[in-house]
Write a structure and sequence with these properties.
Layout (H helix, E strand, L loop, with lengths): L4 H4 L6 H37 L9
Keywords: Membrane, Transmembrane, Transmembrane helix
Protein name: CoxF protein
């Protein structure tokens, strides 16, 4: 039994193409990380704003 054609005909991409793909992947990862951080900060700020300014005046 032999391997399927997709597995047998694996093409090795040149280093320039691999480097370009790595750069694109890195930019995408950074963008997703920044979007997630912005999302978390937005929820934090909205939570504090919803609690109101009296949040800091209460006794512990």
């Amino acid at each position: 039994m032999s391997a399927p054609d997709e597995i047998r005909n694996v093409e090795v991409e040149p280093p320039e193409v691999a480097a370009a793909r790595a750069r694109v992947r890195r930019r995408r990862s950074i963008a997703l990380g920044l979007a997630l951080a912005l999302f978390a900060v937005t929820f934090y700020v909205l939570t504090i704003a919803k609690m109101g300014p009296a949040l800091f005046d209460r006794s512990l």
